[in-house]
Write a structure and sequence with these properties.
Blueprint lengths: L1 E4 L8 E3 L2 E4 L4 E4 L5 E18 L18 E6 L7 E4 L5 E19 L7 E14 L8 E6 L1 H4 L23 H9 L2 E6 L17 H4 L5 H11 L16 E7 L2 H8 L4 H23 L4 E6 L7 H15 L4 E5 L18 H17 L1
Parallel strand pairs: 10-11, 10-12, 12-13, 13-14
Antiparallel strand pairs: 1-9, 2-5, 3-4, 4-9, 5-8, 5-9, 6-7, 6-8
Length: 366
């Protein structure tokens, strides 16, 4: 068996999502929802050695508990949209991706199912009987998803609304974004975090807001690695928007922003703050992506308190700038009973499929 470091195979590994190379640790990460790696392998046995960080997050105000909830992956063979298996991955695990009695050639794709803020996953290297081959990956146009727990698929893999976060019950491949991307033959790219809002939260300071994260490849991961190593970061790695420009950007934020407003005494000022923050962030999305990207400002499927405010901001920005490539999308609301309901009253896979139909139909209408 031969072992090859990931840093020696970068020319033969296709990454999906916002990939970050940790040169100090020798690990290639693609850590947001549906981040992935694809290789072409010829041989009899192939394993990947993973670097992983578990979720140990305890919500503010909750009693401290000891927990380690590790990331999950799905493995796909030869372009199939159905995984051949799903597996939990701990740090240092060597996961068999293919094994057979004779040498065969297969295109193998690894997809991270869990979200960035909760878990981290990267590849250190490969152990193999065979060889990794150079290949020309299938080229698809990109659809980017900016969102919160709904976009991440929080709790979509359970039907018990009493469940809080469990990595095994968060399936990024079966989120509405990933499903819609497959329906439209587009490549999904996620930047989503449970609990996140457009701007810094008021009731729970210290959390990231989306404007903190969007310009960078993976600020969350860089902060985690720096904390582990006792270092500080002077400058985060900027994301290269021009390397794989998005044809569509789906912005589904506002649900957690509405929760913030609940805690503000001056509701009118809080709503005005949201409008200003959303306007600023929407302008930044346009700046980073250029004039040709279609931006869909969406809301749903859990709450619509800020829907009118979002429409107001979109109308204002389009009117002031002449931008005709910003549209709105209101997802159909989920029911709080029945097959719609997943963990912590978030949408289950059943509702995600319906949301995917909403999104695909809206894009096709354009």
């Amino acid at each position: 068996m031969e072992y090859i470091k990931i840093t020696d195979t970068l020319d033969r590994v296709k990454t999906y999502g916002r990939a970050f190379l940790d040169e100090e640790g020798g690990v290639l990460y693609s850590n947001y929802t549906c981040g992935g790696f694809e290789i072409l392998f010829r041989g009899s046995t192939l394993s990947a050695e993973f670097s992983a960080i578990p979720d140990t997050f305890v919500p503010p105000g909750a009693p401290p508990v000891s927990r380690e909830d590790w990331p999950w992956i799905a493995v796909f063979l030869d372009g199939s949209d159905t995984p051949c298996r799903k597996e939990r991955v701990r740090d240092g695990d060597r996961v068999v991706l293919f094994s057979g009695p004779e040498a065969e050639e297969h295109r193998i794709k690894i997809v991270k199912l869990t979200e960035n803020f909760r878990t981290a996953l990267g590849i250190r290297g490969f152990e193999l009987e065979g060889e990794l081959l150079p290949f020309r990956p299938e080229k698809k146009e990109v659809i980017e998803f900016i969102g919160d727990s709904i976009t991440c698929g929080f709790g979509n893999g359970t039907s018990d609304p009493s469940h809080e976060f469990e990595a095994a019950e968060e399936d990024g491949w079966m989120t509405h974004g990933a499903i819609a991307a497959r329906m439209l033959d587009l490549e999904p790219r996620f930047i989503s975090v449970s609990g996140i809002s457009v701007e810094n939260p008021v009731p729970m300071p210290g959390f990231y807001c989306m404007r903190d994260l969007y310009p960078y490849t993976d600020r969350i991961l860089e902060d985690r690695l720096a904390q582990q190593r006792g270092k500080t970061i002077s400058e985060y790695q900027p994301f290269d928007f021009g390397a794989a420009p998005a044809k569509y950007v789906v912005l589904n934020l506002g649900t957690n922003d509405a929760n913030q407003i609940y805690f503000r005494q001056d509701k009118a000022q809080a709503e005005l703050d949201f409008e200003n923050n959303y306007y600023r962030f929407l302008s930044e999305i346009r700046k980073y992506n250029g004039p040709d990207t279609v931006i869909l400002c969406a809301l749903g499927c859990m709450d619509y308190y800020l829907w009118d405010k979002i429409c107001k901001v979109v109308d204002k920005l389009c009117r002031e700038t002449g931008d005709s490539n910003i549209v709105t999308l209101k997802y159909n609301k989920m029911m709080n009973v029945g097959p719609d309901v997943g963990g912590c009253l978030h949408p289950a896979i059943y509702r995600h499929k319906l949301m995917a139909e909403d999104l695909a139909a809206r894009i096709q209408s354009l």
